[in-house]
């Protein structure tokens, strides 16, 4: 019996991760702001990554980050970024989930993990852009990425606060 419960839990977690990744992709594709200087774009993917990572931990945070980053690039016409996005956004989800589950409160439990995840994203895309297009393009990518993660942070704090008000289980160590 115990093994069956573990298998059911794992299946539920995989389905949850897939649904959250699909929602993150849809949210991100609704608003895409192209950045011609870096052959990239600004999206709302941080909202889905941060919310998933904070509420459901890992491996959900890693999967939603990596899968959504990869698919957003493929579907929006930026395939040269998809492998970078897989790694960068996957690490972003990993970091946010790991740090969010070790802290409590809005600042330590939400904001600091998202700032760490944002640093992963901004530095990751600086490095990827520098590799593809040179360091001046890497520097040019920083302002747009800061705007993206800043907006994602603000929306996520509001969204997570609202969701935890409606479902207290979400605020007590997240659903796993």
Automatic annotation (TrEMBL):
Keywords: Membrane, Transmembrane, Transmembrane helix. One of its GO terms (cellular component) is membrane. Pfam families: ECF-ribofla_trS. The chain crosses the membrane at residues 15-35, 47-72, 78-99, 111-134, 146-166. The keyword Ribosomal protein does not apply. InterPro entries: ECF_substrate-spec-like. Coiled coil: none annotated. This is ECF transporter S component.
């Amino acid at each position: 019996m115990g093994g069956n419960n573990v298998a059911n839990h794992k299946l539920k977690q995989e389905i949850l991760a897939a649904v959250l990744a699909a929602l993150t992709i849809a949210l991100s594709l609704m608003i895409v702001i192209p950045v011609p200087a870096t052959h990239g774009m600004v999206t709302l993917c941080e909202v889905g990554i941060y919310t998933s990572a904070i509420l459901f931990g890992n491996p959900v945070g890693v999967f939603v980050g990596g899968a959504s980053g990869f698919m957003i690039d493929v579907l929006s016409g930026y395939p040269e970024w998809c492998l970078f996005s897989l790694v960068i956004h996957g690490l972003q989800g990993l970091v946010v989930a790991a740090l969010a589950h070790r802290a409590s409160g809005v600042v330590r439990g939400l904001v600091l993990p998202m700032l760490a995840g944002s640093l992963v994203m901004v530095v990751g895309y600086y490095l990827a852009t520098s590799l593809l297009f040179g360091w001046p393009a890497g520097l040019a990518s920083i302002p747009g990425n800061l705007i993206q993660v800043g907006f994602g942070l603000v929306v996520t704090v509001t969204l997570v606060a609202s969701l935890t008000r409606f479902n207290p289980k979400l605020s007590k160590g997240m659903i796993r």
